[in-house]
Specification:
Number of strands: 5
Oligomer: single chain
Helix content: 40-55%
Distance between the termini: 21 Å
Number of domains: 2
Largest sheet: 3 strands, antiparallel
Order of helices and strands: EHHHEHHHHHEEEH
Number of helices: 9
Length: 247
Amino acid sequence: MPLRILTENATFEEISRGLAAAEAVFESSGISHEDAMSSVLAAELWEMKGFPEEAMPSQKQQAAANVWFQADRAACETCCAGWPDDKVVRDGILGVGAEPKVKTANLATWAERQLLYPKVVERLETATGPDRQLDIDICYVMGWINEPGAPEKAAELELPYLTGNLAEVAEITQKSLQGWTIEVDQAPCDARILEAESNEDGDDRSVSAWRALDGRLYMEKPPANPAIALTLAAMRLQADSFLLPGW
């Protein structure tokens, strides 16, 4: 899995500098970031168990863990160079795993879009029909456009009718989730996006708009129309990507 910088305040250039500094540390040590990270996890597990002697990480693992911490410090110093002292990240800036596509779609607006996401989902849940303002706000939250705007801007930019055209929503969903199954109910309106098979962690990420797969209801009333139902299901699927730092 790729290295990543875990801070919401850095620009693309600062993130690139931080990653380059960390990668230089791993390269000079001859230890991969995967091995270093695994060794850190081994040390953390040992601590959680109360430091039993029989579970102590090997000297090789301890050395690899130290390389991770050196790379983390290098990433912090390089990424945060020139920042106000109270904004500088001192440690824990380095992680692994791909950044969510919804974040990298527009890093400059990511912090604001994270805050808007739950509000947009709530508006979808209570929408009474097609809503071009909601369409454009969804497009902004997803990073498809650079700034929010009035309903007439949706026509100017030829944005999809996410709350009114089921065919458009289905086409977008199928392109972005190839291999997944889409099911739409007309009366009452509901939509399900079903994962073909569990991911490598064994988790099933399938979602629905109204009636959860375990039978509980996300909201009292079903969505107003099938397009809203499928858009809502697709937005629910993005929930983990929009989690704020600290979760």
